[in-house]
Design a protein that fits this description.
alpha/beta, globular, 11 helices, single chain, 4-stranded parallel sheet, binds beta-D-galactopyranose
Length: about 375
């Protein structure tokens, strides 16, 4: 029987649960199981709520399915809900999970500042909260956070542009159009800062020019170029507007900072429509998430790179955190300083993102089983 990665993790977790329940039943049972800390023996009666923002952005479908599969294999009851990027809908879904007795809520928030009241309801019922990928702000009732290093994601995008254009070697000036993520998404702030801390010095020195004028003066001004709900079609129309307004008479865009793949997809469609040709005519274009359409675009020369976050690894880590919370064990974290949510510094587990270009699509995405070769026409 070949064990896929997911099955292997579940087997390991199941074994750990079984061992723990045996140990838990022995006469030497330690008395440090905190009140409310369910033993593994009744995992089957432990409900875990999984609240994802939307199905309309590819990655969240993978995140939700993987985490649900792992938790079910470990014996938990699960409630996986998608909120169509509607904050009120997500709040209602969370209230339902709490009323159904969820012991742990895993939440990829839509608006990181909108969950204070419902998380108080969770805390009042003794439910624990794990912020998934996106930090939840302005609430003391966020117990843990798991994500990829979001500043690093932006840094990798900025550094890719810096290298691709030879900026460190004094090359330039180049025409740059920067974009940022959804203004209600706490991650988008980190993505932009990571990239802009690399690129803004070149804007200041004139090696990067922004003909549209949409160059935030400081990291904090990032929302001025934010794309609400990360919508591809909004990014596409913004790119079209900039091309029509600032790129007449043969002037060409040479580099676009896109914080993720859904924006990059819309931007690429606008570049296509404006007559840009894949290859040397096509601007350096960044992305994030290794969405399938964007990987195909990379292979066709319509996107330069994506920052890949193996959502399976994030799910594996969060499933482990859930288990540790339920069993009242110490929860694995590796960052207890960075993520101040306005009420507390949330103990966090950070995973490492990695750059994928057309040159390592096979070794990174196919050999790891994230995509099959046939998915990508390889
Ligand atoms: C971010 C997430 C990214 C990005 C975006 C749209 O919070 O970290 O992976 O794709 O949302 O889903």
């Amino acid at each position: 029987m070949t064990l896929t990665r997911t099955k292997l993790v579940a087997v390991v977790m199941g074994a750990a649960l079984a061992l723990a329940s045996v140990a838990g039943c022995s006469s030497t049972r330690s008395n440090n199981t905190p009140a409310g800390g369910a033993t593994s023996a009744n995992a089957a009666s432990t409900l875990v709520g999984i609240a994802m923002p939307t199905k309309s952005l590819e990655r969240w479908n993978r995140d939700g399915a993987h985490l649900e599969e792992l938790l079910k294999k470990a014996g938990y009851q699960t409630s996986l809900q998608y909120a169509d990027n509607k904050v009120d809908q997500q709040v209602t879904q969370l209230q339902n999970m709490i009323n159904q007795g969820a012991k742990v809520l895993v939440i990829a928030s839509i608006d990181g500042k909108a969950l204070g009241p419902v998380l108080q309801q969770a805390a009042d019922k003794g439910a624990k909260v794990i912020a998934y990928d996106r930090l939840i702000n302005e609430s003391p009732n966020v117990d843990y956070y798991a994500t990829f290093d979001n500043y690093k994601v932006g840094q990798l995008q900025g550094q890719f542009i810096e290298t691709a254009l030879g900026l460190k070697d004094g090359k330039g000036p180049f025409n740059l159009e920067p974009f940022a993520g959804s203004p209600d998404d706490n991650n988008a702030k980190f993505f932009f800062s990571g990239a802009w801390d690399v690129l803004n010095p070149y804007v200041q020195s004139g090696k990067l020019v922004v003909p549209s004028g949409k160059a935030p003066k400081t990291d904090a001004d990032w929302t001025s170029i934010g794309i609400q709900e990360w919508k591809s079609e909004t990014a596409q129309s913004e790119m079209q507007n900039r091309i029509n307004s600032f790129y007449a008479g043969g002037k060409k865009i040479q580099v676009v900072l896109s914080p993720n793949d859904s924006l990059a997809l819309g931007i690429a469609q606008a570049l296509d429509a404006a007559g840009y040709k894949p290859g040397s005519d096509w601007p350096v274009l960044t992305g994030q998430d290794a969405d399938k359409a964007n990987v195909l675009n990379m292979l066709q020369g319509k996107q330069s790179m994506t920052v890949w976050k193996d959502t399976r690894a994030l799910g594996d880590e969060v499933a482990k955190m859930v288990d540790q919370v339920v069993k009242g064990q110490t929860v694995d974290v590796n960052d207890t300083k960075t993520y101040d949510n306005g009420k507390k510094v949330v103990p966090t587990y950070l995973l490492a993102p990695q750059v994928v270009t057309k040159d390592n699509v096979k070794s990174a995405l196919v050999d790891s089983g994230f995509y099959s070769a046939s998915d990508l026409g390889l």
